[in-house]
Design a protein that fits this description.
This protein has 153 residues and is mainly alpha-helical. The protein has a domain at 111-151. The chain has helices at residues 3-17, 23-31, 34-102, 131-141; strands at 111-116, 123-126, 146-151. The protein has a 3-stranded antiparallel β-sheet, with no helix packed on it. A hairpin with a 6-residue loop joins strand 1 (111-116) and strand 2 (123-126). The longest helix is centred in the middle third of the chain and has 69 residues, at 34-102.
Length: 153
């Protein structure tokens, strides 16, 4: 039914209500035919089906939103668990680094000497005892000796 016919039918019905069944009522009865009534009923049914489909879509959307909220809360919970875990890992790592950095390098027993004599292959020696005395003896044996001291942690 077009808007114009619908509007004309509405106006005729309103006039018929106020006319005590005179001429306007006859016009109304002429306009309201079985095909018009069927068309109005079909339109009403289409509108009800449309509303039903929209209600179903809204229900589906609500279910989807509910599922997404549950998934979001699950993801947030896992994220918090992982955050707490990695905060612990970082804390443990920081403590381990601090402990390693606090360890003093003991030179006694951890020093090696790379001794180079001119024209000879370098020799690695491990120093035992007094380092200064050991170096003095090496230099007395060969005043041209070059010595690198390497401290191993």
């Amino acid at each position: 039914m077009s808007e114009i016919n619908s509007q004309a039918l509405r106006e005729a019905a309103e006039q018929a209500m106020h006319d005590d069944w005179g001429f306007d009522a006859d016009l109304f009865h002429e306009l309201v035919t079985p095909s018009i009534v069927l068309e109005l009923l079909d339109e009403r049914e289409r509108n009800q089906q449309y509303i039903k489909r929209r209600d179903q879509e809204n229900e589906d959307i609500a279910l989807t939103v509910g599922k997404l909220r549950v998934e979001l809360e699950t993801a947030k919970s896992k994220l918090n668990e992982q955050r707490e875990y990695y905060e612990g890992v970082i804390s443990d790592g920081s403590k381990r680094i601090a402990k390693l950095e606090s360890n003093e390098v003991r030179e006694d027993g951890n020093q090696f000497l790379v001794v180079r004599h001119p024209g000879k292959t370098p020799v690695i020696k491990h120093c035992t005892g007094d380092l200064e005395e050991f170096l003095r003896q090496l230099i007395e044996q060969d005043p041209l000796v070059t010595i690198d001291i390497i401290t191993h942690r």
